[in-house]
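Long-time lurker, first post. I've been practising inverse folding by hand and with some scripts of my own, and I keep getting stuck on stretches where the structure tokens seem ambiguous. Below is the full token string for one chain I'm working on. Before anyone asks, I'm not after the true native sequence, just a reasonable design that respects the backbone. If someone could post their per-position residues I'd love to compare against what I wrote down in my notebook.
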């Protein structure tokens, strides 16, 4: 048994092609998640994991084409991680870009009243809202001064008198 070192460490696809493919697919998937998925009440469900696996599988060929060597995979991963780091760095240094890339906080309850339009906008059911209230030890919506869905999907809650 021998190892074909050139097949393992030589490029089977042009590094520039891998960078272009990685860039195009990164932005496509990023925009897909930003526009369609947005955020989800701070939890990851089975359907979320399934969609991530399906997207990863469906995008693999578009990302890599027919790559087979270690350097091909390294260039592709470096491209994807590079874009992720660059976006985080730019968002940190640019308030305008940060606002563009991250959804703003969304008020769900204000002064004990549910803002139905915001629940519909994020497809949050009454059951989900009630579960979040229980998780925060709230028995009645009238106890809530403000309940906000943050950019990361987490819920922050302020009670009256606390």
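-- Answer (accepted) --
I ran through it position by position. Result:
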């Amino acid at each position: 048994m021998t190892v074909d070192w050139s097949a393992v460490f030589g490029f089977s696809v042009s590094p520039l092609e891998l960078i272009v493919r990685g860039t195009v697919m990164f932005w496509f998937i990023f925009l897909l998640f930003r526009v369609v998925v947005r955020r989800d009440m701070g939890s990851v469900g089975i359907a979320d994991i399934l969609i991530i696996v399906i997207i990863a599988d469906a995008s693999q060929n578009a990302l890599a084409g027919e790559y087979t060597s270690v350097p091909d995979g390294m260039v592709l991963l470096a491209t994807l991680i590079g874009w992720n780091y660059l976006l985080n760095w730019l968002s940190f240094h640019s308030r305008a870009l940060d606002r563009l890339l991250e959804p703003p906080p969304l008020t769900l309850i204000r002064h004990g009243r549910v803002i139905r339009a915001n629940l519909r906008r994020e497809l949050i059911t009454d059951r989900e809202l009630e579960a979040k209230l229980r998780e925060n030890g709230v028995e009645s919506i009238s106890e809530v001064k403000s309940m906000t869905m943050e950019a990361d999907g987490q819920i922050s809650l302020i009670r009256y008198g606390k």
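A couple of notes from the structure itself: The first strand starts at residue 106 and ends at 110. The chain has seven helices and four strands. Happy to go over any region you disagree with.
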